[in-house]
Sequence to fold (210 residues):
Amino acid sequence: MEVTISQAAKMAGVSRATIYNDIEAGTLSVVQGAKDRKMVNVAELERVYKNLKNPDLEPESKPVEISQERHKVIDAGGQVGVLQERLEAQKKQTQFLEAQLAKEQEERLREREAAKAFEEYFKSQIENQAESIKNITRLLEDQRTQEEKPQSNDWEKAFKTLEDRISNQDAQAKKEIEEVRKSSQQQVMRYKTALEAEKNKPFWKKLFAS
Fold:
């Protein structure tokens, strides 16, 4: 016959602490009972403590079992609560990343619109300058019939220099616009990658992520 630690203490007339101390010291051996409970064989108990009492064991076993079952239910409920909290935290984190991505996409859209407006402005300025150059060029051609051709040549050089400068400004403006576009695309791709990585995590990693 096997009894619990509490029952063994009552039968031996000692405290539970004495039973546990003798178990740890190897004086008293135990066996694994149902649900991994430590049990003591009555013969082993009698060998160590000699004369034993024989209390009514049946009433004690039921409250102990009921108490342990209650503890297990409480523990299981606590674990479920922890998992639910972690799940909610993961959902909030995903929502935060999605909001950040939407905000970043909106900002990139505004930047593209601003870059487009900037490009249109430069184009209009270049067209105006080109028209002015054409008008001045016509005036210069009219001046060729006059006697001051050297002065006319100087005017042509001056306007050629102006035309080159405007062309360089146009190239620089296009380069800056292209850099803004590339930067916007890279930012959007990084946020998309972060969001996809978060969504593609295994469920257990999302729950137990630190």
Summary: The beta strands are 2-4, 31-32, 38-41. Helices lie at 5-12, 16-25, 42-49, 58-143, 149-199, 203-208. The chain has two domains: 2-55, 90-208.
